[in-house]
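Example 267, ligand magnesium ion.
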Amino acid sequence: METHEPESETAPRAGDKACLIRIEDLHKSFGDLHVLRGVDLEVARGESVVIIGSSGSGKSVLIKHVIGLLEPDAGCVYVEGQSVHHLDRAALSKLRQRMGMLFQYSALFDSMSVGDNVAFALRQHTGWKENRIRDRVSEVLGWVGLQGSEGKAPAELSGGMKKRVGLARALALGAEIILYDEPTTGLDPILADQINELILDLAERLHVTSVTITHDMVSAYKIADRIAMLYQGRIEEIGTPEEIQNSANPVIQQFIHGRAEGPITAM
Ligand SMILES: Nc1ncnc2c1ncn2[C@@H]1O[C@H](COP(=O)(O)OP(=O)(O)OP(=O)(O)O)[C@@H](O)[C@H]1O
Ligand SMILES: [Mg+2]
């Protein structure tokens, strides 16, 4: 892949085994729109980092770089010290097997049943027999409260159900790193809380490392070890839920309390 910066192919700082994902000075533009303007962010192994920020601030763009769906204009994303956009196709595919991603708009294959959507990565990557795949699909659909819906078509589902199928698909492979793009958007408060509990359970039981984008501050406080706010293309502040709640930064205060008045202006 083409690179634009003279950064090294391995993370420059050794002896930092706790850091699983490191984003360094990441820049990304689309035409004249300079979306990411030097994002720095580190996620430790086993940590749950939540990213908050206004609509259009670049949250989805940021996490798409972590699985190599977008290529940086400058800067770098390292996962376990490997620069994601320097990996060849085979190495990237191997890395992606260790990551699950819930896309913001679920991105289900409309022509496939729910069961086949969830089984997709298992069929591609595991070599498991059909009955083992079927058991796993049934298990992860159970986790998201959709047991028995294998035969349904995506078109038959509500928005919240699609979201949960997308979540089941992201979890099916048992990935160590999960990127959740708005996992609770469009869900009723009870379902949202069940999904938050599932995210916490995966972190505690399986030591999953996660990066979650959300607008829902109740979810953010519940699932985050640390919350990072993306603002004007950079991480404005990062801290524990308590530190963010007590931040003196007016940008943070305006966002977390959802006030129209403040330094963050409407588009
Ligand atoms: N592939 C693309 N081509 C052109 N512009 C893009 C592309 N992807 C994102 N953008 C633009 O980059 C900006 C950031 O988009 P992004 O989807 O990351 O926002 P977001 O923070 O996730 O917002 P939301 O909370 O609404 O999901 C937007 O202005 C969007 O239009
Ligand atoms: Mg988004």
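Summary: Residues 189-206 form the longest helix (18 residues).
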